[in-house]
Design goal:
The protein has 12 helices and 14 strands. It has 329 residues and is an alpha/beta fold. The structure holds 1,4-dihydronicotinamide adenine dinucleotide.
Length: 329
């Protein structure tokens, strides 16, 4: 049988952690024959560590065959020791009356410390997925702090947005979600993100040809996907957790299980200048996982509406980068 891999999860006692850990431990992320060691990081507060103990007790009680062992810690250097994957979920939620820029400044330093610890203690093949918001900019901060880790090991998550767009398109077209493929989100994981109805396919055809209601594609489809997080908070009183955990399971699963030529997933990765997105930003692109890593799929066409929206979301990423400039070393 395979040797276990080490997977760090930060904010492991939080909502997403609770939904995520059983799915990793049951093999849904790395495959049904891959044992895992879970290295779980929480804040050094009695309440947080006690909650983490409780989560670990429940994982024990599931007796998952693939769960080799667990490490519970509030020390970043312990959490990232020899890890192959670092899943950065934990961060402070936005408080009442807090502006997005305040949140960015508040959470940024966490990702400097974690990036350094990943650099110093991670395995030689360490890869990183950031979920904690603002995830693109937090991933950029961690990437800069991890000087010796190649930039392309850093990703942030728009897979939940991709899955939301898939569900909306399937419902509108009246087809099963399996008929929707190549679902594509561009830009920032924020309310400016761009769900692409031109390159996303329904039954193999452009979604924009199958769904002829332009007003819906450029209106309600956009706002529903962009505002879904807020709608979940309004309905549930808590932010998305099961679907966010599901997005992360899919994100990592599809990065470690290569796609066929011509296929892609939405993944936030460091730009190489593709599609006019300046290098030095972490933005959502069509990404195809390969045996060696991944590539940004080239040659897709955008209509004028999508192009303008892409420029706007990239502008937001640039402004976020300016806000954290002092954290980029
Ligand atoms: P939560 O508040 O339930 O859990 C976060 C946990 O992280 C808490 O247990 C907290 O103690 C811990 N934490 C905070 N700072 C930490 C640090 N420096 N080190 C270790 N642990 C730390 O939040 P939830 O619902 O689990 O969400 C986590 C994050 O994921 C939030 O930032 C949220 O905005 C983001 N998110 C991102 C999505 C995406 O699509 N990219 C979707 C949904 C949520």
């Amino acid at each position: 049988s395979k040797a276990p891999i080490r997977v760090a999860v930060t904010g492991a006692a939080g909502q997403i952690g609770y939904a995520l850990l059983p799915r990793i431990a049951s093999g849904q992320m790395f495959g049904p024959d891959q044992p895992v060691i879970l290295q779980l990081l929480e804040l050094p507060m009695e309440k947080a560590m006690a909650a983490l103990e409780g989560v670990a007790m429940e994982l024990d009680d599931c007796a998952f065959p693939l769960l080799h062992s667990m490490v519970l810690t509030s020390d970043v250097n312990v959490a990232f020791k020899d890890v192959n994957w670092a899943l950065l979920v934990g961060s402070k939620p936005r408080g009442p009356g807090m502006e997005r820029n305040d949140l960015i400044k508040e959470n940024g330093p966490i990702f400097v410390g974690q990036g350094k610890a990943i650099n110093d203690h991670g395995a030689a093949d360490v890869r990183v997925a950031v979920v904690g918001n603002p995830c693109n900019t937090n991933a950029l901060i961690a990437m800069h702090a991890a000087k010796d880790v190649p930039d392309e090991r850093f990703t942030a998550m728009t897979r939940l947005d991709q899955n939301r767009a898939t569900a909306q398109l399937a419902a509108k077209a009246g087809v099963a979600s399996t008929e929707v493929s190549h679902t594509l989100i561009w830009g920032n994981h924020s309310a400016t993100q761009v769900p692409d109805y031109v390159n996303t396919r329904i039954g193999g055809k452009s979604a924009g040809e199958v769904i002829t209601d332009r007003e819906w594609l450029q209106g309600e489809f956009f706002t529903t996907v962009q505002q879904r997080g807020a709608a979940i908070i309004k309905a549930r009183g808590l932010s998305s957790a099961a679907s966010a955990a599901g997005g992360l399971v899919d994100h990592v699963h599809d990065l470690v299980h290569p796609q066929a030529e011509g296929d892609w997933r939405s993944v936030c990765v460091p730009s190489d200048g593709s599609y006019g997105v300046p290098a030095g930003l972490i933005s959502s692109f069509p990404v195809r996982a390969t045996a060696k890593g991944y590539e940004i799929v080239q040659g897709l066409e955008l209509d004028d509406f999508l192009r303008a929206r892409l420029d706007a979301t990239v502008g937001e990423l640039q402004r976020e980068k300016e806000v954290v400039a002092d954290l980029l070393g």
